[in-house]
Design a protein that fits this description.
The complex is a heterodimer of chains A (about 150) and B (about 150). By secondary structure, chain A is α+β, with helices and mostly antiparallel strands. In chain A, about 25% of the residues lie in helices and about 30% in strands. In chain A, strand 5 and strand 6 form a beta hairpin. The longest helix of chain A has 16 residues. Chain B is an alpha+beta fold and about 150 residues long. Chain B is globular and about 50 Å long. Classes of the chains: A alpha+beta (about 150), B alpha+beta (about 150).
Chain lengths: ~150, ~150
């Protein structure tokens, strides 16, 4: 991978995506499917992510997205930019500071806050990461660290 | 581990697991498909690795193991994901995951639970991911924070 010229303030954004009902349900269905690990699709009891009545019974106005959907969209942006280095060494921390409701338009963002290089040539990139809605209100916030081995 | 224990019963010092499993290509592809990580390193055929976010489902693996009574009376809401990655996790790896409840506290009328998990490679004992998971055990709408 060609080394990018990164500096504090360098920003990356993904194209906005609507948090559709289907996107929320995909994560719900993945959970029992992965637990079974038998190659077939499995479903689970109603959750706050796929059943409006159940969500309302828990004090919510309707279904909300699992925070891990946003975290994975941030992960996807980091992979797009840095390749698989983030799966090898680093850190990702996210907090879900506002609920993401059905059809919210979500933009995934990252901004470089620091770049350091050690004597071996390995480069550490710190970033602020977040997801925002179409009014630039932050929904998910966090930090990431990506460590790139020397070329 | 107490039989009948629910997730809402967990308290500081409770240890969940360890649980061992082998990471399958199906699990990685299925997860990445669900969260739109359409990258070759995850959804390809060769040299497939685990996205570090997949450790979140190991939490559910530990809950199933330690809390046979299920979720409990209220829906759990995920508040924070924090993963430190120390090594690549490859499809086919034999893995061990263990967790410990490190905090349970009330803030602004909501009850929070913190689980710290460690994912290691069974063959070498190498720590691959340390994950801290913070959830709200019972949601109330007024503060507007939820995920």
């Amino acid at each position: 991978m060609t080394e990018m010229n990164l500096q504090p303030g360098t920003e990356f954004r993904l194209k906005p995506r609507p948090m559709t009902r289907e996107r929320m349900r995909w994560y719900v269905d993945a959970q029992p499917t992965i637990a079974a690990d038998d190659g077939r699709i499995h479903t689970q009891e109603p959750t706050i992510h796929d059943d409006d009545d159940y969500a309302r019974s828990q004090g919510l106005p309707g279904i909300i997205a699992d925070g891990m959907v946003s975290t994975n969209w941030i992960m996807g942006l980091l992979i797009d930019v840095f390749g698989r280095d983030i799966a090898r060494k680093g850190r990702l921390r996210t907090k879900y500071i506002a609920p993401v409701y059905e059809n919210h338009l979500v933009t995934t963002c990252a901004c470089v806050t620091r770049v350091t290089q050690d004597q071996s040539g390995a480069r550490t990139i710190d970033l602020e990461v977040w997801c925002e809605d179409d009014t630039q209100r932050k929904l998910t916030v966090g930090e990431a660290t990506v460590v790139q081995a020397a070329a | 581990m107490a039989t009948g224990l629910m997730v809402t019963d967990l308290d500081v010092g409770d240890v969940l697991g360890p649980v061992e499993y082998t990471l399958s290509p199906f699990v990685v592809r299925e997860y990445c498909h669900a969260v739109e990580l359409h990258h070759d390193c995850f959804q390809g055929i060769d040299d497939q690795v685990m996205p570090p976010t997949l450790i979140h489902l190991d939490k559910l693996r530990l809950y199933r193991h330690a809390c046979p009574g299920g979720t409990g009376p209220t829906a759990r809401i995920h508040y924070e994901y924090d993963a430190e990655i120390f090594g690549e996790v490859r499809v086919g790896d034999r893995l061990s995951v263990v967790g410990e409840i490190t905090e349970r506290y009330t803030k602004k009328g909501r009850e929070y639970l913190v689980l710290v998990m460690k994912l290691t490679r069974v063959e070498t004992g190498e720590l691959l991911i340390r994950y801290t998971d913070r959830v709200i055990l019972a949601y109330r709408e007024q503060s507007g924070k939820a995920a």
